[in-house]
Amino acid sequence: MTATMTDAPPPAAPKAAGVAPQRSGRSLGQILVLVAGALLLLAAVRMITGSQDLDSAGQVAAALGLAVPIGLAGLAGLWSERAGVVNIGLEGMMMLGTFGAGWAGWQSSPWLGLLCGIGFGVLGGLVHAVATITFGVDHIVSGVALNLLALGATQYLAKLCFTSGAASDAGGNPKQSPPVDALPDVTVPGLSDGLHSIEKHHWFVVSDLAGVIGGVVTHLSVVTILAAVLFVASWWLLWRTPFGLRLRSCGENPVAAESLGVNVYTYKYAAVAVSGGLAGLGGAFLALVTSHTYLENQTGGRGYIGLAAMIFGNWRPGGLAMGAGLFGYSDALQLRNGGTTVHALLLLLVVLLVALAAWKLYRKAVWQGATSLIVAVGVLVWYLFTDEVPNDFVGATPYVVTLLVLSLSAQRLRMPKADGMRYRKGQGK
């Protein structure tokens, strides 16, 4: 690293490297207002529709469990893309994580399985890094190839490792590993029971708040706590340290960053390796927490949904966490309660579409506002003249929410400027 970069104070690095200082997202006050507004809206919909499961402790706990692997996949994508490497291969890295966790977990302990899942994910990340950074392969092509490679590799390794000997005797077969011991979880004694008692009274807002908090403090997996810590740590590292400034400069203007002494290849490799590890951790969560065993195709597209959550969050940890929570919540609704509760959610959608239409009309976007209003009227008619949502549509709820959220948030997105661009060492000299 040259004296130009090492002698300069850290805050000056982004400006010199062509990266303007950025706000790290919404303030804490704005986030609290958004959360309070969402809680009030859910409470009102619950009172109107009588659907008590909309924000019950069970619903919140299920949503949290479903949101964690999506959130970890999105955080993996954030690390990679902030360094300028598009990572479509998250799904494959998660597959490798599920296999690694199941393979090591049943033979030793779930903790070793967790580490092995992360390690397998890092291995997948390094394969993607070699292809895209060193050899300059198109990022999308490399990611798709990695997904196919991971699928084939895990299927082959499962047949090799789980169909004979002790693994077969313990319940393994070509499509799953033997059962793995459970990781510990955390329940706050006393508080959980008290909140459950308040929730049963179905008081407006008070019971809703008790249900939300109760779902967070009851049987909370240690991996969920680790995921929360990783979100905070990622925000601090990427937006509050010189390391993060230099890494983000590689995704904004790698030529300018290199001209100031930043080893762009090193930072890109580090980011993609961390990305693979986080995706592997998401896969390990599925194998060790969700099902206690490795299953073939266990990821179920969560890597792609994680990318959608990252885009919804505008490549920032806070927005990503909100997006993952939204997708996890919609998935939990259709899994736990079926058409009746999803039907109640239609009323919530009507309110949100009307609010969006009012905002668009206020901003003079007449066509967009009118479209949102027409869709809101259609959804309201659907809600008024039906009692529940058909099962075929219920199963598609998470994917419909993904498309809807991306379409509504597309106009405010700002991806890293050099994201996905081929970079050759020496361009900045």
How would you describe this structure to a colleague?
- By secondary structure, the protein is mainly alpha-helical.
- It is 71% helix and 1% strand.
- It has 20 helices and 2 strands.
- Strands 1-2 form a two-stranded antiparallel sheet.
- Helix 4 runs parallel beside helix 11, helix 5 crosses helix 15 and helix 15 crosses helix 16.
- The protein is globular and about 60 Å long.
- The protein starts with a helix and ends in a 20-residue tail after the last helix.
- The N terminus is likely disordered.
Number of helices: 20
Helix content: over 70%
Main sheet makeup: 2 strands, antiparallel
What's the gyration radius in Å?
23 Å
Strand residue content: under 5%
Tertiary shape = globular
In N-to-C order, the SSE pattern is HHHHHHHHEHHEHHHHHHHHHH
Overall structural class, as computed from helix and strand content, comes to: mainly alpha
Question: Largest sheet, order of strands side by side?
Answer: 1-2
**What would the average pLDDT be, to the nearest integer?**
86
Number of strands: 2
Terminal Cα span: 13 Å
**Low-confidence segments:** 1-24
What does the secondary structure layout of this molecule look like, with pairings?
Layout: H1 3-6, H2 13-16, H3 28-49, H4 57-82, H5 90-107, H6 110-134, H7 139-162, H8 165-169, E1 185-186, H9 191-199, H10 206-217, E2 220-221, H11 222-240, H12 242-252, H13 254-259, H14 264-290, H15 302-312, H16 317-336, H17 339-362, H18 366-384, H19 391-395, H20 397-409
Helix pairs in contact: 3-17, 4-10, 4-11, 4-14, 4-15, 4-16, 5-6, 5-7, 5-14, 5-15, 6-7, 6-14, 9-10, 11-12, 15-16, 15-20, 16-20, 17-18
